[in-house]
Amino acid sequence: MKTLSEWLDYQQHIHARGIDMGLERVHEVWQRMGAKRPAPVVVTVGGTNGKGSTVAFLEAMLRAGGMRVGTYTSPHILRYNERVRVDGIEVGDATLVAAFERIESARGSTTLTYFEFGTLAAFDIFARAGLDVAVLEVGLGGRLDAVNIVDADCSIVVTVDLDHMEYLGPDRESIGREKAGIFRPGRPAIVGETRPPQSLLGHARAIGARVEMLGRDFGWEPQVGALTWWHRDPAQPRYVAPAQGAAGIVLHGELALEGAFQYHNAASAIAALHALGDRVRWDVRALQKPAAGARAAPLLAGRLQHLASRPDLVIDVGHNPQAARELALWLDRHPVAGTTRAVFGALADKDVEGVVAALGARIDRWYLAGLVDESPRGETTARLAARVRVAIPDAVCELYPDIPSALAAARAAAAPDDRIIAFGSFHVVAPVLRQAGPL
Prior knowledge:
By secondary structure, the chain is α/β, with parallel strands linked by helices.
């Protein structure tokens, strides 16, 4: 019997291409396995950025409402098991191995990618777990992503921006068209953008999906010390949705995840649950930041997550220009008295120049590290430095062979009033967390 590690290594090599867009092969194997729905209610979440956060918000609210929830996300940070959770707990190695064995028995001569194996395993595990709701994160794009073999009861596209253009197309319109592929006729299609591509809306209208868009159909209304979620009734200009009591859906205090963009993600998650009506039970209070001093695991690791203070150490998995713009906004709103030091690495196929340009002079000193030891797609240190200087010719850079040595140098140089931000990839966050200890 293979171990989990052996199964994952096997999956990396049985298909000719690591990414092979298309549903035919994975759908064929799913049919052979019985094509069981992961849960009575399925919510699919797509988008360039914000997918993982939106899944975390959905999971938290549904579990607080007493529902049994499974979540499927990717990529993982430290452990493959992070990808498949049942009732907030990562499934064990034995559960994953058993699912992989069932897939292997069913697939015959049909080859599957690493991601397709994982997707079918999640569906199989969820179908056997007796869940109420499955929340599925799209891996890449939407229309041709393995997750899309299941017809979702509600689909969310939280953002559309430039990433993975070699697979999805050269511009937002092309990418939006691909992401709109997760929408279904007659079912809620939640759009977390105030200015989405016309291709996204056009496809939704063409198939008869029930579009609800941030800023037009739902959003946040500021109140004294709180935010009230509002939802437009087609018969009225605007009304505060009366769900969860006469006071409406009210968020007191801050969100559990930092960053202004997270309020858009949270509003979209609420819109999805509101659209599902009495098929789900949920509680918005699960989104609130724990009280000061309360010990709690982060709602989601690696999203503007604070690991230490004096100096402040923050990690973020953001790896494209849109994510970098949001990070820049957060840095502007949370200045420090001292120096801002960036521990930065990237995959070679990412828009490093666009990411660095978005941050500009907010970073005082760059600690650059290659990711070749973390990923076969990792950028080398030398090339990373050259690309950073294309975006910022006078950038102050120090070069290191890997993330641990870059982080050690930044921490050694930092004063108590400084900030260290480690970002650029999941492969940057992972070694930082390994040094910091378990999640």
